Structure formats: C-alpha cells, structure tokens
C-alpha cells in the first residue's frame, strides 16, 4: 500500500469543532445573519446548464479586480483564503526552506508550509499579543521563503501597522510575504494596492466573513502580476465553483448590505467589550468581528454552559499564549444582546472574575 510522506505523517491535523453546530453561531466568526437577499435571489435563479458546465473564473476575476482597483493579472480567485495559503506554499517553498509565522494565529499557515517540507519558525507575539517586530526581523535569513501575517490576527484581534509589514517585505525580498486580510472590513486598513510596487507582497481577502458566504468558499489573492502568473501555474483552472462565481458579482454590487452589517458589528464590538469589562473579564481590544476574552480554568465549562443555552463560542485555550481564553464572535444587534444577557448569567453562575493569563501581562 502507498506510504504517506514523512512530513504528512508528522503534521498536526487541524480539526475545527464543526459537528453539531446548532444554535447562535458565535464560534467561527461568520456573518450571523447571512448573505445579502440579492445574493440569495441570484442563487435561486441558477439553472441546470450553469451547473453542468465547468466554471469560468476569469470574467469574475475582472469584476473583482475592478472592485479592488487592480489589474486582472494581479488577481486570482481562490477556494477561500485557505487555498491562497496552499498555493503560495506550493509556489515558493522547497523542502528545507523556512516559513515564519507569528503565533498565536490561523493554523493553516503552518500546516501548508510543513506539508511542503519547510521548517516553520514560530515567533511568539509580545505582551498583550503585540506584534513582535524585532523578534521577527531577528529570525529573517537567506532561507526565509514565506512569511504569513494575519492582519487583523485571529484569534487575538490584534493588528499591525501597514508600514511595518512593508518593511518586512523589503527586508526579505527572497520571501513571499502574505498579508491575510480576512477581517479587513472590520478593520478598514489594507495593503491591497501595494503588490504592484512590492514584488514579493501578496494580500488575501475572503468573502466568508462580512459578506456571509463562508459556505461557498470563495476568496481572492492579489499580488504583483509576474508573481501571480507563477501562482496560477499551480492552481486548478476550476478551483472556484460555478455557484460562487455566479453570485459574487451580486455580492460586490450590494455594498449597502455589507456596510450596514459591518456598522452593526463595529458598534456591537464596542458594546461587548464594555460589557466584558463591567463583568470583570479581561479581554483584548479587537480590530476584527470577534473578541478574545480570558475566562481562566473554567474555559471549557464556560463554553459548554453557553452551548446549553444555545450559544456557540470557541475555546482557544490550546493556542500559544491563550491559556484559559475563549473567542466570541460579534454579530447583529439582536445576537449581541442575546450574548450579553447570557454572559451576565453565566459569569454569576460560574463565579468568574479573571486576571491576565501568564505570559501576556502588559
């Protein structure tokens, strides 16, 4: 029988707790009210002929490029940001190369890099999850071929200034530098216009969060045109499904819907953070559509008690530096009010009053 490669045998599997997700979804940073009604109407209008054909990606890439203010040669639609990470790893990493990531962060950066046989160097975030600029620069070497930074970061919600990311790209011209802007809409700062000036810089976006399209798995990778031509060589020509391609233009055109939802999230993020402080729970100010809060030893019980109340939240205790922490997605006004009401009861029920976890004191 065939034998898997050693690097694959040694990979730590990423198994998100997807089973039995019944209730208010505040665990995966999804849009809590769903996509635009215009998107649903377009989806319902799809016919059997469209589904019988192989999907054609390029016409929609032109629309996405125009929306982003880029040339179509700079844009590749992907099966979520996950595929963008995978493609960059396949394009630029050889066995023995080094990939730098700042932890805690999205698990797939390390998994895809390790699958190529690269050595992953984890640079721990600083106090209160601040970006470890000096430590990262100290790890740069001629073997560095990929650097991945989520901005804002998941699960912490922390952000890093764009000029710092540009300096990193300029300091490591031999490396592909990925800036993952999955939560851009809730942050408002971007480097999407920089890859034409910085050849080794790539920016990824997703339509899973603010747009409410996580189930259709569609994202976009932007980079310098000549570099993107190399990335396209390892991409399937049919990587994005026909339904996603059909509805994406409609989603882009309904910016009023997206803006309205984002405005709710920003307002509710502030309300939730204030409530957490009032309850005596330590949290980290977030630039995304979630808040990381320190619960302490009762983190698993906290998650279960909320689940029993029909509210799903994500235990991040296993992430580096996140011992005792839980991540709460911020959604609509109604959903945030439901969460806040439950939090008041659960904090009293469990007798929670937390201090900062070890290793992240300011």
Write the layout of secondary structure elements.
Elements: H1 6-9, E1 24-25, H2 37-44, H3 48-52, H4 58-68, E2 75-78, H5 80-92, E3 98-103, H6 108-115, E4 119-124, H7 133-139, E5 144-150, H8 162-171, E6 176-180, E7 201-206, E8 219-223, H9 225-233, H10 242-253, H11 255-278, E9 282-284, E10 290-294, H12 299-308, E11 311-312, E12 314-315, E13 325-329, H13 333-350
Parallel strand pairs: 1-11, 3-4, 3-5, 5-6, 6-7
Antiparallel strand pairs: 2-8, 7-8, 9-10, 10-13, 12-13
Helix pairs in contact: 2-10, 4-10, 5-6, 5-9, 11-13, 12-13
Describe the 3D structure.
This protein is α/β, with parallel strands linked by helices and 362 residues long. The chain starts with 5 loop residues before the first helix and ends in a 12-residue tail after the last helix. 38% of the residues lie in helices and 16% in strands. The strands form three sheets. A seven-stranded mixed β-sheet has the order 2-8-7-6-5-3-4, with helices on both faces. Helix 4 packs parallel to helix 10, helix 5 crosses helix 9 and helix 11 runs parallel beside helix 13. It is built from 13 helices and 13 strands. The mean pLDDT is 95. It has two domains: 120 residues, Aspartate Aminotransferase, domain 1 (Alpha-Beta Complex); 217 residues, Type I PLP-dependent aspartate aminotransferase-like (Major domain) (Aspartate Aminotransferase, domain 2, 3-Layer(aba) Sandwich), CATH 3.40.640.10. The longest helix has 24 residues.
């Amino acid at each position: 029988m065939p034998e898997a490669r050693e690097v694959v045998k040694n990979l730590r599997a990423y198994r998100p707790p997807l089973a039995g997700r019944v209730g208010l979804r505040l665990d995966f940073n999804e849009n809590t009210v769903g996509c635009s009604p215009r998107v649903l109407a377009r989806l319902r209008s799809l016919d059997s002929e469209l589904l019988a054909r192989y999907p054609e990606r390029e016409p929609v890439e032109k629309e996405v490029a125009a929306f982003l203010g880029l040339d179509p040669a700079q844009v590749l639609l992907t099966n979520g940001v996950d595929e963008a990470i995978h493609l960059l790893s396949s394009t630029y990493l050889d066995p023995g190369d080094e990939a730098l990531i700042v932890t805690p962060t999205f698990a797939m950066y390390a998994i895809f890099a390790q699958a190529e046989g690269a050595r992953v160097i984890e640079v721990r975030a600083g106090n209160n999850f601040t970006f470890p600029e000096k430590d990262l620069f100290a790890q740069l070497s001629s073997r560095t071929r990929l650097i991945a930074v989520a901005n804002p970061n998941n699960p912490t919600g922390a952000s890093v200034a764009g000029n710092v990311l540009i300096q990193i790209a300029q300091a490591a011209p031999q490396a592909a530098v990925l800036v993952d802007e999955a939560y851009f809409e809730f942050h408002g700062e971007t480097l999407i216009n920089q890859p034409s000036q910085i050849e080794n810089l790539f920016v990824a976006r997703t339509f899973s969060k603010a747009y409410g399209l996580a189930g259709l798995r569609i994202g976009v990778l932007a980079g310098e045109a000549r570099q993107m031509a190399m990335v396209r060589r390892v991409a399937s020509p049919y990587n994005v499904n026909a339904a996603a391609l059909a509805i994406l233009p409609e989603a882009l055109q309904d910016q009023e819907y997206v803006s309205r939802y984002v405005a709710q999230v920003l307002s509710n993020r502030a309300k939730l953070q204030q409530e957490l402080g009032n309850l005596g729970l330590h949290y980290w100010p977030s630039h995304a559509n979630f808040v990381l809060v320190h619960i302490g030893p009762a983190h698993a019980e906290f998650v279960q008690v909320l689940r029993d109340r029909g509210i799903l939240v994500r235990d991040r205790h296993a992430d580096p530096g996140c011992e005792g922490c839980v991540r709460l997605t911020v959604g609509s006004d109604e959903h945030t009010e439901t969460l806040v009401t439950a939090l008041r009861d659960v904090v009293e029920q469990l007798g929670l009053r937390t201090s900062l976890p070890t290793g992240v004191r300011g």
